[in-house]
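Following up on my earlier thread - several people asked me to post the actual chain instead of describing it. Fair enough. Here it is, all 325 residues.
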Amino acid sequence: TYHDSKCLFFLGECHDSRSVVTQWRFCLGPNLAHRPILSSCGGSSCTRISTGRDHFCSHYPSRIHTFLLVTPHCVYSSLDYDFGIYIADSASGSCTLGQDLIPPVAKYNLSISHLSLDRTKSLDLLEFLHGHNQSVAGIYPSNNTTTTTMSSSVLSLNWGEIIPLHLLQPLFVPPHGHDNKFIILSMPRRRYQHAPEMVPELLQLGHKIGQWIQIISSSSVSTRSKVGVIISGDLSHTHQANGPYGYSSTSARMDHALGQWARHPWPCQSQLLQVATRLQSQALSCGFTGFVLGHGILQSCQKQQQQQDHHHPLHPNQGDDDASI
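Reply from S.P.:
Thanks for posting it. Predicted structure:
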């Protein structure tokens, strides 16, 4: 869990060149965390990730009303160019995993029976970004309407949303879940081939999202709402020759750069914006675009917080409970 400049990010484990990156889904299947391939090169990371998840879910949900989940794995074919914001009252879905692991294992299913989406804030964010000329589209149930008059709607989820949400179930599943709602933002499909060129656009979009968060957070007391940001993203996909994308010597360097940025985003921002950007086309990190977007949100929030502190210095007794994000 990373908490700085009044922004929240939930990041996975970063591995060095001696390790195979353990993706989230490895920790979800029955007995996967204890298989030799994982226990020797990442299985313990499943435990550390789960511990971090438990800490995050037990400390922050009561202080945050809405979570913005950013995922790179959207299944909606309409998002070839535009970023997408899911517009619905709720979402649900299921997926089958396991068939793509090396070595293969028995398939297993994951499902989310009900997820409350913050339709009002999703529409507000979409309108705000449109007003600032951002390439963002609304994703509606069945993707066959762009109207905002539907009284009730359920949007279908697939593995790109279900995997991170499954790990975050303590945020919203009874009896221990809180009454949190979600906004879901997906990346366009062009990120697969053009992620490095998207860096300026991703930073700008992050800046605008950060501005929107600050605006709704500083509104009247009756509508004040804190927003938590969760970035879901894989690291390099080229650690093994028998993997789906083959081996690249850039994979370990890419993960190291992302790890440096995640630990120290301000002094190490060049690790993300220069080093990782240069390596992305060979290392193939699906999470790269989300991390750059997240950095843009951080930059925006830090800038606005500095301006607020300049005009209204923080009272000595004002603590984290007054954080906007």
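Residues 288-311 form the longest helix (24 residues). That should answer part of your original question.
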